[in-house]
Amino acid sequence: LPTRGPAGGLRNTQVLLGPRGELLGHYHKNHLYGPDFSWAQPGRGYRAVATGLGVIGLCVCFDVNFPGAWEALRAGGAEVVAFSTAWVDDAPPWPHWLAPVGRYGLPLVAGNTWGQEDGIRFSGGSGVLHPAGGLLAATGLEGDDVAVADLLLPAPRSQNPPSNSGAGSGSPGAQPRAASTDPRPLGRNR
To answer: How far apart are CA 177 and CA 115, in angstroms?
Structure first.
């Protein structure tokens, strides 16, 4: 979503909406790619937003390739990453996305565009990926579709005391949290 930056330039922006359409947070893409350079200014830092479902890290397209993005989101408390993209490739993108999902232990909900625009072909293939379960749900490579999967998020860290047995701790389900309209900036653009 193009939005105006403070100096009047455009940014590639992801928004997170609540169940009633209210704006919970936004994020400006940090790492520009290809055509972005002709119209967008890079963002600064990363964002995680506390919601009633848990803490959602925001990530746009090429940013998914940078360890600093994943590290900042995880350090900021993200329990799942919402990833908007216009992936450019002929192959399904899921194997590429599974590597950081496994490495950083964060589920990824990826919304990808499909088709062709201005001579650029987008791969399609949105999906829900989990560090332990791989690809949980996926759309086709063409056509409008929705991928649906249940994600069991960890209990809040403050409710996960160390276990005496060393076999894990805390309750297995996600705990509700109050929504926040103030996204927390995380890390810096590297």
So the answer is: 38
Quote the CA–CA distance of 59 and 68 in Å, as a whole number.
12
Q: Which amino acid is at 129?
A: L
- Separation in Å, CA 10 to CA 39, 115, 173: 7, 24, 40
User: Helices 67-75 & 94-104, crossing angle to 10 degrees?
Assistant: 40
Whether the Cβ atoms of residue 2 and residue 40 lie closer than 8 Å to each other: yes
Question: pLDDT at position 187, please?
Answer: 37
Q: Chunked in runs of 10, what are the mean pLDDT values of the chain (190 residues)?
A: 88 95 96 92 95 94 95 96 89 86 94 89 91 91 90 58 29 31 35
Q: 3-state DSSP call for residue 101? A: helix
CB atoms within 10 A of CB 83: 24
Predicted pLDDT of residue 154: 64
Cα–Cα distance measured from residue 32 to residue 137, given in angstroms and rounded to the nearest whole number: 28
Per-residue pLDDT tens over the stretch 50-67: 999 899 999 999 999 999
Backbone angles phi, psi at 41, to 5 degrees: -100, 145
Distance of alpha carbon 47 from alpha carbon 25, whole angstroms: 8
Mean pLDDT across the chain, nearest whole number?
A: 81
Predicted confidence at residue 121, as pLDDT, reads: 87
In a 13 Å sphere around the CA of 182, the CA atoms on its Cβ side amount to 0
Q: CA geometry: angle at 67 spanning 177 and 71, to 5°?
A: 30
